[in-house]
Specification:
Layout lengths: L21 H6 L2 H18 L13 H15 L9 E6 L2 E4 L4 E4 L2 H4 L8 H10 L6 E2 L6 H15 L4 E7 L2 H15 L5 E5 L8 H6 L14 E5 L4 H7 L1 H18 L4 E6 L2 E2 L5 E2 L2 H13 L3 E6 L11 H4 L8 E4 L6 E6 L15 E2 H16 L8 H19 L18 E4 L2 E4 L6 H13 L2 E2 L1 E4 L3 E5 L11 H16 L1
Parallel strand pairs: 3-17, 6-7, 6-8, 8-11, 11-12
Antiparallel strand pairs: 1-2, 2-3, 4-14, 5-13, 9-10, 12-13, 15-16, 16-19, 18-19
Helix pairs in contact: 2-5, 5-13, 6-13, 9-10, 10-11, 14-16, 15-16
């Protein structure tokens, strides 16, 4: 069925002269069109008043404090940031419930690529309010889940062997499903391979695989994981790239020889997210993938955070590794989370299921996001994402030059200003204060107070990271963002 960018419900047959179901008649109703457009017009009028960073309204201090206290009461602990949104924003600017306005440079850890109150996505979401139910599931689903999957698969199939998909309600669940697919295919192999400093999610199993001890305190360790070093350009520069790759291949081979036939998969983060926005090297990753292929170990590409943010839609396209991928997980930006797999890894009936697969609004908005990524000028060496990354690096380098005392060299990152600036595309990081955890945390909070929302990544050194809404952010916004960052770092440095 050919896809359409029209958010209205589409007829199941291209030749249909008129809507055939009552739902299609409702979706085609001029009264519905008028109501939707009236609501979007009101939204645009409201968001047009949000134009710059703004401090909180003193009159809202007590109500906002009450909200923060409520958050602590219902959660058992306070919020990491005192962030509670008002429900309105304008692109990269977001209004909080205390009427303050801030630059949102983390976007829910990368969920909101098109920022806040995007009229096009709002239009799609409003129409979803007419659906007969909120949730879709494996037993009963409407067409939107299938259309979303079809749109995503059309992009994935173009440059890989990926053929099928399964929807889920979170990135951790998408990863759980990927693990089950790999375990079933290679049963009874009980072990997995992963990179050091990886992050997989917060479920019991994913927390065990993720290489962060604080995230698995008190959990039983019953998942067998062998960790491999990730690409380290500083070390590779010292020993030589060829020798660094040869050493990693030798370590992988040693694991496979030590536990013959016992590894179901190697989980590849082509670009590490929580691990520090570290970008993998194609030759390094390719060498490891070729060993996996030769030894019948599944190559699982985790793109929960990287999808859509590099200079191609998929990170495996950016690194030209699509031919090696057996299983892929995506999420965050797509709104609904998905496990994709090749025909060889299509699991047996009953392995994957669940009451919920997601909501009609998530599928419609997710489909529209993929269409906009596909049809917009985001990708390529001169695409919008590449130009934003270049602007980020320019302003970060200028900040470092203006305040060298804030940016001592970090030996593990390498020498020079550019070693303190990293990431790729819409994944951006820089490392002040020698990457010390307490100072980085202080910097995050100080920048928040000054009007820009950042977060951290890495495991020593720690870095400040950004996942900005490049779908709506303007190149000319960067000086305004870095003006807030500079004020925040000055406060943290003091």
């Amino acid at each position: 069925m050919p896809m359409t960018t029209n958010p209205k419900p589409a007829s199941s047959t291209a030749s249909a002269a008129a809507p055939a179901t009552h739902a299609q008649r409702l979706g085609a109703s001029p009264a519905v069109d008028q109501a939707v457009e009236a609501m979007v017009a009101e939204l645009q009028a409201a968001q047009a008043r949000i134009t710059d960073v703004r401090p909180a309204d003193p009159a809202l201090a007590k109500p906002y404090a009450d909200l923060l206290a409520l958050a602590a009461d219902v959660r058992g602990r306070g919020l990491l940031y005192p962030y509670i949104g008002s429900g309105l924003g304008n692109g990269a600017l977001v209004e909080l419930a205390d009427a303050s306005v801030k630059w949102d440079m983390i976007c829910g850890i990368g969920v909101h690529f098109f920022g806040h109150s995007d009229p096009d996505l709002t239009r799609v979401a409003i129409r979803s309010g007419l659906d007969d139910t909120l949730k879709h599931g494996n037993l009963q689903t409407n067409a939107q889940a299938l259309e979303f999957s079809q749109t995503l698969l059309a992009q994935a199939r173009a440059t890989s062997r990926l053929k099928f998909s399964f929807l889920s309600t979170s990135g951790a669940m998408a990863n759980e499903n990927a693990l089950k697919v790999c375990f079933q295919k290679h049963a009874p192999a009980p072990r997995v391979l992963a990179f050091r400093d990886c992050f997989m999610g917060r479920s019991t199993t994913m927390a065990q695989i993720g290489d962060t001890p604080d995230y698995r305190q008190g959990l039983p360790l019953n998942t067998l994981v062998d960790y491999m070093p990730f690409w380290d350009p500083a070390k590779a520069a010292i020993v030589g790239k060829a020798q660094y790759i040869e050493s990693a291949v030798a370590q992988l081979t040693d694991y496979l020889d030590r536990y013959p036939g016992q590894h179901a998969c190697f989980i590849f983060e082509l670009i590490q997210g929580e691990g520090g926005f570290r970008v993998g090297d194609r030759d390094f990753l390719k060498a490891l993938m070729e060993v996996c292929k030769a030894r019948r170990v599944a190559v699982w590409d985790d793109e929960i955070q990287t999808f859509g943010r590099t200079t191609r839609m998929f990170a495996y396209e950016t690194l030209d590794l699509g031919q090696y991928i057996d299983v892929l997980t995506v999420g965050k930006m797509t709104q609904a989370c998905v496990t994709l797999f090749t025909e060889e890894y299509n699991p047996k009936g009953g392995l994957l299921s669940g009451t919920f697969t997601g909501e009609g609004v998530s599928f419609r908005v997710g489909q529209r996001i993929i269409e906009r990524l596909r049809d917009g000028n985001y990708y390529g060496d001169d695409g919008l994402i590449a130009r934003h990354h270049a602007a980020f690096r320019e302003h970060a380098a200028r900040l470092i030059a203006n305040h060298p005392a804030w940016f001592p060299e970090v030996a593990t990152l390498g020498q020079g200003t550019q070693a303190l600036i990293g990431g790729i595309g819409g994944m951006m990081r820089f490392t002040p204060f020698a990457g010390k955890k307490d100072k980085i945390n202080a910097a995050c909070k100080a920048c928040f107070d000054e009007g820009v929302i950042l977060f951290y990544c890495g495991h020593g050194p720690y870095s400040l990271r950004m996942l900005p809404p490049l779908g709506v952010m303007k190149i000319e916004d960067w000086p305004r963002v870095f003006a807030c960052i500079e004020k925040g770092l000055a406060k943290a440095a003091g």
